Amino acid sequence: MSDKKFIIDTSLWIKCFRETDSALHSYISSLVIGKKIYISELIALELLRGAKSDKQYNMLYEDLFAIPILELTGDVWEVAYKLSYKLRKKGVNVPLADILISSIALHYKCSLLHSDKHFKLIAEHTALKEQSL
Question: Which of 100, 96, 90, 91 is nearest to 128 (CA)?
């Protein structure tokens, strides 16, 4: 397998949790087993806030933090500042969380898997590698 790294955005995790698309589940599972998946604290925060019970929160917490974390460092913030300015200057308005997640992917040179129209917009103006599933 290649050395490619992936971040799965909150939008795609939620799609996986809600749907029973076996092809999508198989693909994500193969990436997890192949240790190709990474997560950020921001994505974990977005997912954990949606837990419906203490039990679900605890299970989700354990599962998420078993995945290697790409930290939101000062360098990532610098990428985010510049990216946000560049996009706004071009008239592209996207949620700040999506700018931060894109900045993490750009900084750590990961492909971003998602189910969110904003990442395609960001990719049109940056080197972001993204795939909508």
Answer: 100
Token look-up 């971040």 returns 7
**Lookup: tokens for 9:** 């955005």
Coil/strand/helix, residue 44? helix
- CA dist list (Å): 19 to 14, 23, 46, 50, 118: 8, 11, 18, 16, 21
Q: pLDDT digit string (tens) for 42-72?
A: 999 999 999 999 999 999 999 999 999 999 9
Could you report the per-residue pLDDT of 73-123, keeping only the tens digit for each? 999 999 999 999 999 999 999 999 999 999 999 999 999 999 999 999 999
6: which 2 tokens? 């992936």
- Specify the DSSP element, H or E, that contains 59: helix 54-64
Query: Could you give the strand order of the β-sheet that contains 111-114, starting from the edge strand earlier in sequence?
Result: 37-38, 6-8, 111-114, 129-132
Which domains, and CATH codes, for the chain? Answer: 6-132 (3.40.50.1010)
